[in-house]
Each structure stands twice: as structure tokens, then as C-alpha cells.
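Summary for the lay section of the report: proteins are chains of building blocks that fold into shapes. Here we show the chain for Lipopolysaccharide N-acetylglucosaminyltransferase and then a coded description of the shape we predicted for it.
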Amino acid sequence: MKVNIITGPFGCLPPYAIGAVEKLWYSIGTDMRNKGHQVIFISKKPLKESSMDDNLLLHGYERTGSWVKDFVLDFVFSIKALSKMPKCDMLVLNSIWSPILCLLFKWKYRRALYNVARFPKKQMGAYFAMSSLACVSTAVYNALIEQSPSMKSRACVIPNPIDTHIFCNEHMVKTLSDSPEVVYSGRVHKEKGLDILVKAVTRLHEVGVSVGLRIIGATKIEDGGSGEDYVDYLESLVRGYRITWVEPIFSPSLLAKEIRKGDIFCYPSIAGLGETFGVAPLEAMGLGLVPIVSNLDCFKDFIVDNENGLVFDHTDVRCDELLANCLMRLLSDEKMYSEMSAKAIKKSAGFSVSRVSDMYMSIFKKVLGGE
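The coded shape description reads as follows.
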């Protein structure tokens, strides 16, 4: 099968950038190639010389900080990508404008799929040219059909994958270490609820429970963090311990090595319309860490409370106390911890790149067979 994958105007393919959409489709597209399909990526050209001869790399753009300007740049890039791409059987789209503009290039493809990686903003009804709308989580799917019920028959849920060769645990279980540590990996931003986490760990130290806290990720505003003022605020909440700060790690294998140092992975996000799936806790689950997450719908596709992780209500005024209680439960019950760890590892194994790639290929074949 011939498959064209158009990404967005602002991110390059790995290893030249680490955008989530680019990483996702590069891994899936590469797997499809390895299974005998002809896959062409149409993406932003990196500044460095690229040897990606099998792909179509175009001049892209940097984000301007203006939504309107970025919207226009997306339009320009989408037109270029669609006009220059070769003919294909299946067209995968990720930019904002491409699902509309593709109608001008209908002779170049047989069917098209749009990857709904963010919560829709009532634009899905305009994407009527799409044969399939693949949502990354049930939460995104529910939002889509609520906003655009006419598109329900075209919508489906296909999760984001993780690299199960890297984020894995050969022992199939993890036990609590003598000096347990809580780990967070992601942007150090206010919407991630890290103040709740720091307060919860401080509560434990105030009652004599010793546990470390390791925060991995970007703090600078230009890198997606909330800046040094937010870091200073988090530090001001610390009592009786020190936060271990780790700069963002772009290598998956090095990130896995850093996360493995911990016992519990906490992702206390309060971004109800910002989190669409939650790759970070799923990767940690693969390593055997037991996850504790906020009560956002996006985590419910792979975390079951009291089975392979714990969930706390981030909307409760006592949220830091509730999180502290979750931490205490795991730290004080090694049997429960190990049982949850084993179940977390088993669950994560179902999100391999190969399996998710096959899910997409199954959709491709279904819509192509409908001609």
C-alpha cells in the first residue's frame, strides 16, 4: 500500500526534533515500511543536512507566538505539502488546514485519515472529506462526537504507542527500593499540577515518611515550561527534603534510564482540555513504576484505579492530601505495590508501535475496501 503522511509546518521528523506528532508518525510509518508498505513522509525540512532520501522535506516555519500567524503558516505549508506529494492510496493528515484543502487534490489519493491528537474545537464538521477520524483517546472521541455528531460513523479510537523495546521491564515486576522516590517527567508547567505533588511529598516528610522527588523536564518558558518563578514557587513548598531537578531528556533510552531510578510515577495534571492521552505515565508503567494520576478522562484508557495504578481527585480542595494518601498506600504496602507494578507492565505491552501500526493499517484497508 502507498501511504503519504503529512505532519505540520513547525516540527521536523526525528532525530532532528522531538515533537509528539512527528515522533508518533515517524515510528508508525517506519513500522509500516518494515512490513512492506511504501510510506512517504511530507514534513518540515531540518536546518541540518538530512539523508532522508525517501521522504519529501519542505521548508517549514518556527512558531510565531501569534495564533493567527501560525494559522496562516499552517495554510501555506498544507498547500505546499498537498501540491508536491506523490500519488498514494492512503493519505494521513495532521495539520489544521490539510483536511479541507485536500479536496483540491482529490486526484492524488484514494482515501484520507485525520489524526485527532488534540481536543477538537468544533472544526470536525468541516473535515467531511476524511474517510476516518482517528482519536488518540476515548476522551477525545467523546468530545468529537458531542461537538459533531454527524461525524460519529467516521470516528474511532487508536491510542498513541510507546517503544516497548525501551520502556520495558525484563523482570515483569518492580519492588520498592530501600530509598523510594517519586518521579515526574514532562513540562514543568502550572497546568501539570506539580505544586500538588510537591505539597503531597512535603506532607509525607512532615509525618516522618522519607521519600525522594525527581522532576524531569523543561522549566524555561521558551521550552514549554512556566519559567524560573514557578520553579522558585515549587521550591518554596519543600520541607525536609530536596527536589532532584533533571533537564529534559530527548533520547528515549536515556529517559528510560532516568525514570527507572524511581518507584512511583506521578502525573498530577490539572489540564482538563490539554491532556489528550498521557504517554509519559504509560512509558513509566512499562518500566514497572506504579502510576498515580489525576482524575482526567484521558488516563482511563490504560489506568484502572486500585488495579494497575491509583487515581486522585485533582478538583478536590484537599487534593494534595488525597495525593499524599495515595503515595502512603503504595509506600506502606510492598505486596500491593508489586502486584500493581506487574499489572502496569502487562497493560503497557499492549501499546507497542507494531500493534498500533496494525490498527491504523486495518482502518486503511477498511476505508479503501469501501470504494
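Put simply, here is one thing we learned. Residues 167 and 256 are 6 Å apart (CA to CA).
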